[in-house]
Design goal:
This protein is α+β, with helices and mostly antiparallel strands. It folds into three domains: about 60 residues, Roll (Ubiquitin-like (UB roll)); about 180 residues, 2-Layer Sandwich (Threonyl-tRNA Synthetase, Chain A, domain 2), CATH 3.30.980.10; about 140 residues, BirA Bifunctional Protein, domain 2 (2-Layer Sandwich). Helix content is about 35%, strand content about 25%. It has a five-stranded mixed sheet. Strands 8, 9, 10, 14 and 15 form a five-stranded antiparallel sheet that branches. It is globular and about 80 Å long.
Length: about 400
Amino acid sequence: MPNITLPDGNSLSFSKKVTGLEIAEKISKSLAKQALIISVDGEQKDLDYIIEKDCSVKIHTSKDKEGLETIRHDTAHIAAMAVQELFPGTQVTIGPVIDNGFYYDFARKEPFTEEDLEKIEKKMKEIVDRDEITKREVWERNKAVKHFKDKGEIYKAELIESIPEGEDVSIYFHGEWHDLCRGPHLSSTGKIGKYFKLMKVSGAYWRGDSNNEMLQRIYGTSWSNQKDLDNYLKKLEEAEKRDHRKLGKEMDLFHFREESPGSVFWHEKGWALFQKLINYMRNRQNEAGYKEVNTPEILDRLLWEKSGHWEKYGENMYTSETPDEKVFAIKPMNCPGHIQVFNQGLKSYRDLPLRISEFGKVHRYEPSGALHGLLRVRAFTQDDAHIFCSEDQIASECLIVTNLILDI
């Protein structure tokens, strides 16, 4: 006889085991129609999840974050389902929910085109109309690995092999099509609605490792109603008009080249604006008691090992070996250089707090797919500062620098 505690503190008692849908039906018919998934003691479950003992339960609808994310998760599955129906032989890999939508990575020799996206979107709507029933099965690990390998789904097999021992190998079916997934999912494909749009295709390395195969990533957005979808697309349209990459070209401020990806070619007007910003920040920092320094852009590997950057950030650093077999790295940040400045000469408590600033040119290797105009680059000027102070000065220094940031 499970006793179900609801979010408002009320409770429901049942004489036998009960599903999430049955709980929703007991609360109200309208809630049962809107219910998408449930949370049982804070863990998200399918609506048909069977509850046998006392617990707390929350019913999620499209009006809350969990419900909307489930719609997006299901839409990702439907996108993968549509791709494999249209393009047999395409392998599916992963398809998570992201802000405002989802993506799914595919292994396919031929590149997806804009026309392909239109076909996929049309097929997705057909799948929604088919209202395929969703069901979850838990498979034995070796069975699951063999099944996906036999299907030619080597990426899925690899994912299953990496699941920790003791964890369920959860397989979700939408009709006959199925995928490895933790869930939860909606009860059928018809529950998703047709308020989605496929946005673009980009490249993505398997598991985010540039040593692995390049996959094709299809991005999409999905919402619970047409109004929200239209508003989101309108917002993107307005943002595109103000896109700094577009304005930079139109106003002759800067440009980018494939010969130096992620690095900015500043034009005269753009560089003048850049210098005005630098001068403004320099004056503000001078007024706040910061001492501006300049440190080398290239430093010995030994220093980066000592600072911990080599171990934690080494794969994102540009390195070079000299004829005498010394390894140097272009700095991705200014921290070690500022420590070297502080270490020069004797310091006493009377010298503290010591505020050091620098407009340091740094370089960081970012995956090509992550580059985005001036917002995500490989070379940039970092307006950086470090404050050296005593323990009893930490609170006041935090307050001072926070006020400076907020004022700027």
